[in-house]
Write a structure and sequence with these properties.
heterodimer; A: 114 residues; mainly beta; 7-stranded mixed β-sheet; 4-stranded antiparallel β-sheet; 0% helix; B: 112 residues; 5-stranded mixed β-sheet; globular
Chain lengths: 114, 112
């Protein structure tokens, strides 16, 4: 157990629907990162938050949004889902946001869009 | 972040040391070398990182060349559970751009 908790572990939904993935960071970690891993794309960085504020943005689609709440948990919202959104979504957390801070990853949420 | 080059795949024998090379010829002085691994769709697992000096922990050793243009991850006694994709990542030390950028990694198969 890495200490980063992601729910749900598995999610099956239909095209056009909206889902929310949740991440609880390790105790004491203020920074949260979201990554997407699909079969043909590898691990792609989506977005990073630090203490509630967005710090960095990657290749996140406009249909996707995220936020970090005052209790530091984060949610990734995926809307108007397409078949191509089927992927593993990983959350990671770190204490700070400098390059010296190790990222700890959760076990992931597997999204299947039918 | 500097780009890294790793072999696509490699095999190693159980119980032997596994030496995983990584080239990062465009690395800057303020960039760390990080190693992560991913075991079959599990979340990536941190192994080790370093800036200039060689590093060792309970999992592995990291050897960084003096010019910092390449490094080697050493798993001292590979086990079957070390079969995974290993990612070498160069990452800026500054506050901005803190994300990890994953490449293709090296697929390591430990054989009995």
């Amino acid at each position: 157990d890495s200490g980063v908790t992601q729910t749900p572990k598995h999610l099956i939904t239909a095209t056009g629907q909206r889902v929310t993935l949740r991440c609880s960071p390790r105790s004491g970690d203020l920074s949260v990162y979201w990554y997407q891993q699909s079969l043909d794309q590898g691990l792609q960085f989506l977005i990073q938050y630090y203490n509630g504020e967005e710090r960095a943005k990657g290749n996140i689609l406009e249909r996707f949004s995220a936020q970090q709440f005052p209790d530091l948990h984060s949610e990734l919202n995926l809307s108007s889902l397409e078949l191509g959104d089927s992927a593993l979504y990983f959350c990671a957390s770190s204490v700070g946001y400098s390059g010296a801070n190790v990222l700890t990853f959760g076990a992931g949420s597997r999204l299947t869009v039918l | 972040d500097a780009k890294t080059t790793q072999p696509t795949s490699m095999d190693c024998a159980e119980g032997r040391a596994a030496n995983l090379p990584c080239n990062h010829s465009t690395i800057s002085g303020n960039e760390y070398v990080y190693w992560y691994r991913q075991i079959h769709s599990q979340g990536p697992q941190y192994i080790i990182h370093g800036l200039k000096n060689n590093e060792t922990n309970e999992m592995a050793s990291l050897i960084i060349t003096e010019d910092r243009k390449s490094s080697t991850l050493i798993l001292p006694h590979a086990t079957l559970r070390d079969t995974a994709v290993y990612y070498c990542i160069v990452r800026v030390a500054a506050a901005a751009g803190n994300k990890l950028t994953f490449g293709g990694g090296t697929r390591v198969l430990v054989k009995p």
